[in-house]
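Q: My labmate handed me this sequence with no annotations at all. I'd like to see what the chain might look like in three dimensions before we decide whether it's worth expressing. Could you predict it?
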Amino acid sequence: MMPLFEVEGLRKSFGGVMALRDGRFRLDAGSVHALCGGNGAGKSTFLKIVMGIESRDGGRIRLDGREVRFASPREALAAGVAMVEQELSPVPAMTVAENIFLGREPTRAFGRVDFARMNREAAELLGRLGFHLPPDRPMMDLTVAQVQLVEIAKALSHEARVIIMDEPTSALGEAEAGHLFDAIERLRAQGAGIIYVSHRLSEIFRIADRWTVFRDGCHVAEGSMAEVTRETLIQHIVGRPLAEEFVKENVPGPETMLEVEGLTRERLIRDVSFSARRGEILGIYGLMGSGRTEILECLFGLAPDRKSGRIRLDGREVRIRSPKDAIRAGLALVTEDRKGSGLVLTGSVRSNITLAGLEGLSIGPAMNVRRERAAARRMIEAFSIRTPHDALEVSGLSGGNQQKVVLGKWFLTEPRVLLLDEPTRGVDVGAKREIYRVMSDFAGAGGTVVLVSSETEEVLGMADRIVVIRDGRVAGEMVREAATAEDLVHLAA
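A: Here is what I predict for the chain of 493 residues:
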């Protein structure tokens, strides 16, 4: 049977560096085909060439057996190829509906935009996907997860026959991801072909029919999902057998490090209380919009609308009104959106690593460049950040290495409490394990970790205790040994 979409021998180099050596892929109609690989494997370059964002140096792309060469995403869309991108790119000042129909707005007489119809159609589309967002809400008022829902709806609104989904659930909770999987099943039944890219192997095993692995810019293996194990797929991705996925070795001590009492934030969180001990990894689990991220923002001084609540460190109450107060108290926050708020993408690896520790690296108003370079080198080595030099623009690193830069930035401040919001979002299985090792080592040295995650298996794999948040309140608390994924979802829903 002729494939719906086929790619052979795709090649691309940047400045003499070969990013893609042998990109091969075959997609059948009515199927979901997972494209797997670590950060830097060539997946993003492959997708950009397919969508006409980048040119190719060689290779062929066929759609329905006919060779195609797209010069832009608009040409790809016109041919029936759409993409849900990993990097979110909304127009913040526009509404949800305006973003979905950007460039193809329904019109009335004399070419005027029919806003009523546009809002109605956007609401219908979101409703069919199980996403409930007001179509007239400005994008700037949405959370990262809600923006991702809009991007998914926008791509699916084109009714394309080939749909590329690049990390579509990276910002979603399990309920929202479930709605997306239902939509994928409907698209598959209608004969569409889905190229599904995700570092979450559980999703791939749930929805994909076939898999293909890229490594170091090359196609290395492919097969049926029914005939591969999780361990074998991981070995293809990283090129070697990988030890146990979750790294959790230490036992928490008896001393309480962090106490939160009666934390309340206008319309977002209400009377939240919990504690965490030295050497403990405390998990916070909740669905999208539950208030899990807002709790960390309160702890780190990012919530001017915080109404009440007490925070104690080592038994002493601390007043945290700004990130500067939090850093001085010994807190560090790795945000869920590393590119939007964790990094200065146009800055160097070195300047990003030293950004939070400038006070300790300066002599008066001037930066001590020697100290800065030494500090950056220390963190690069400690976190095995793969970069040719510390002056490289941080945007040139893979997602996993960018996340390690963020971690290095905060470890330079020598924190006592590490607040992590979705720390493994968008990183490959190898980088995930390295981040888990960092968490475990930090806790083992007497630090305290507060881990916010929308992945039940991550929380159950790494946390000693788990606090479940629902509608801005604590819905329950349990120790890892007594908890199941079903327990967490039941409490959170």
